[in-house]
Design a protein that fits this description.
The protein has about 120 residues and is mostly beta strands. Helices cover about 0% and strands about 60% of the residues. The strands form 2 sheets. Strands 2, 4, 5, 6, 9, 10 and 11 form a 7-stranded mixed sheet that branches.
Length: about 120
């Protein structure tokens, strides 16, 4: 059974930091992974993504503040978020491209983890 599980969300004060983690399991192989977020009243948007070759891509709002990293052996990615502002408040979702012998490559989403930035 394929699973994509996020962890590390919570409540943090403005200017603070959080580290999110996402682990993918249950497939034969894992390729690109990324973090997305959905703020209240807004559409889901890309925050950062990373390939197995460790190439990264960031949204403009994430550049300079967030860092995505990856442990290929564990099929796990991390998102280090610094200098958080209330505008970063959202549910953060992890997406993974996973290969299963039965169906080939497919995208799988985690259940999301809430990040709240507030004093």
């Amino acid at each position: 059974q394929v699973q994509v599980v996020e962890s590390g969300g919570g409540l943090v004060q403005p200017g603070g930091s959080l580290r999110l983690a996402c682990a993918a399991s249950g497939g034969f192989d894992v390729n690109g992974m990324g973090w997305y977020r959905r703020a209240p009243g807004k559409q889901r948007e890309l925050v950062a993504s990373i390939t197995t070759g460790l190439s990264t891509d960031y949204s403009e709002s994430a550049k300079g503040r967030f860092t995505i990293s990856r442990d290929n052996a564990k099929h796990t990615i991390y998102l280090q978020m610094n200098s958080l502002t209330p505008e970063d408040t959202a549910v953060y979702y992890c997406k993974a491209l996973i290969f299963r012998r039965e169906v080939g490559w497919s995208e799988y989403w985690g259940q999301g983890t809430q990040v709240t930035v507030s004093s």
